[in-house]
Amino acid sequence: AQVAPGAAHVPGWLDGARQRELLTACRDWARPPAGLRTVRTPGGGTMTARQVCLGWHWYPYAYARTVRDGDGAPVKPFPGWLGELGRRAVAETLGPEQARAAAYDIALINFYDGDARMGMHRDADELSGAPVVSLSLGDTCVFRFGNTETRTRPYTDVELRSGDLFVFGGPSRLAYHGVPRVLPGTAPAWLGLTGRLNVTLRVSGFPD
Ligand code: MD3
Ligand code: FE
């Protein structure tokens, strides 16, 4: 379903088997070196969602090839199959033209426990305007999709559930967004995940 211009939500896009596969891969990527870490902002704040990166390492507010704000290890490679998954997501929602240009090279994986949230922000550290692909696993969250001008109203709250796909292209690419809350205990029992996990795929636009 189109939520805003360039923004599409597809509930249950990943079937159960794909959700389990993606979760297994995320647990593997979370292991050290260059594994799951707590992100600290320059202002002295701490992000409540913990994160692991593939391809390029994000730290507030830039990208690097090593874990600049953690163990210093080289960032894990971005796997080809994940890029193909991203391109298929874009092709099915925004069309084949948009998918052709989307050479995904970054994954940011955020792990949320029941108390974690993410404040309203824009993703503007990438040079490319290619669509961002978001895949959710585990507990349902309230996702707040805002506007491009302010971090306040008007915004739309959408529940993101395990297996859901969200694609943010066109004018939605630079919209403010956040996760005001996670709904504990709502993950499907067969997945075996406590909390919520979100994988975003991005195109850096950086030279190799
Ligand atoms: C809209 N993640 O990683 S997913 C992020 O659920 C982030 O972990 C949230 O915001 C999460 O930056 C929200 C949905 C999402 C991701 C990236 C976007 C929405 C976006 C980039 C541009 C516009
Ligand atoms: Fe974001």
Automatic annotation (TrEMBL):
It comes from the Bacteria. InterPro entries: Alkb, AlkB-like, AlkB-like_sf, Oxoglu/Fe-dep_dioxygenase_dom. It holds the Pfam family 2OG-FeII_Oxy_2. Its cofactor is Fe(2+). Residues 103-205 form the Fe2OG dioxygenase domain. Keywords: Dioxygenase, Iron, Metal-binding, Oxidoreductase. Signal peptide: none annotated. This is Alkylated DNA repair protein. The lineage of its organism: Bacteria, Bacillati, Actinomycetota, Actinomycetes, Kitasatosporales.
